[in-house]
Amino acid sequence: MASVANASSPVLSPHLAENAPRLAPEQVVIHMGRAATVGEGINWLTLLVVAAFHLGALAAFFFFTWQRLAVMVVLYVLAINVGIGMCYHRLLTHRGYQTPKWIERVMAICATLSLEGGPIFWVATHRVHHQFSDQAGDPHTPREGGGWAHIGWMLWGNATHAQTELLNRYVPDLKRDRFLVWLSKYHWIPITASGALLFGMGWLWGGWKSAVGMLLWGGFMRVTLGLHATWLVNSATHMWGSRRFETRDDSRNNWWVALVSGGEGWHNNHHANPVSARHGLAWYEIDPNYWGIWLLSKLGLARKIQVAKLATAQPR
């Protein structure tokens, strides 16, 4: 656990450290980041897909209705808060809590609606990030440029499929789950099905214009905003904000990134206590993703929730 400078210290709940996932054997060395990928040139497929979704998001403004905005918000919460924040990040990557398998799988399906890929690549890449955070080998450190950390690392080289065998060694827990392996291979199915459903529902409600509008808002606009919310965690929270803990990286607590990402912006707290399912440690640090986990626990659907808390006494 990182030391504290001019702040109260975190006290981890029982078994927090013991439950930390084993990210990779010490002998495994995987190099990602600008030096490892930029020489391979632009990944045109990824660039075209990202550009298409941004163009669709711009077109959505010509099809605005409050109904379509509401659909977008609901799907955004499912994809970014439930899927990425609660599942891919706090559950699958860091094992900050436990759920029944069916809940884990439903949330993982929600995560694929974000267009951020399947669970195996997402989790492995994030574990690499923690292993080399803001050092050589970090997939997306702002030390190699803010634009690189935000989006460039996805657009250059073959980052999304690079060094697959080595990456698999970062996720032995996920590789044992046949469903997560299947979902990682076919992660495009849920988001494609959701697009078809949005188009069909829109058509039934109001013809082709309603169908296009529903797809643009529930699909293209939602995905674009969600991607930038996640990318801001990679970039902005390693550039701007406050530092409660003196970690070995540049992580920072950034309130406005926390707002759009459901609490993921309390990034310095997270890097100091990566296994904690709670990122907002102070009362004013809003953390909707943790509130979702808390709600699951009250429904009997989450247990062994690992929580770091602030205390006045510094642990030894």
Question: Would you write up a description of this structure?
Answer:
The protein is mostly helical and 316 residues long. The protein has one domain. 55% of the residues lie in helices and 4% in strands. The strands form 2 sheets. A two-stranded antiparallel sheet has the order 1-3. Strands 2-4 form a two-stranded antiparallel ribbon. Helix 3 packs across helix 4, helix 3 packs across helix 13 and helix 6 runs antiparallel to helix 10. It is globular.
Topology:
Layout: E1 3-4, E2 9-12, H1 34-37, H2 44-60, H3 66-93, H4 101-112, H5 119-131, H6 146-155, H7 164-168, H8 172-175, H9 178-185, H10 188-235, E3 245-246, H11 255-261, H12 267-272, H13 288-298, E4 308-311
Antiparallel strand pairs: 1-3, 2-4
Please give the alpha-carbon distance between the first and last residues.
11 Å
Write out the strand line-up for the largest beta sheet, numbering strands in chain order: 1-3
Overall spatial form: globular
Fraction of helical residues? 40-55%
Q: How many separate structural domains?
A: 1
- DSSP strand count: 4
Low-confidence segments, given as residue ranges, are 1-20, 23-27, 312-316
Mean pLDDT: 88
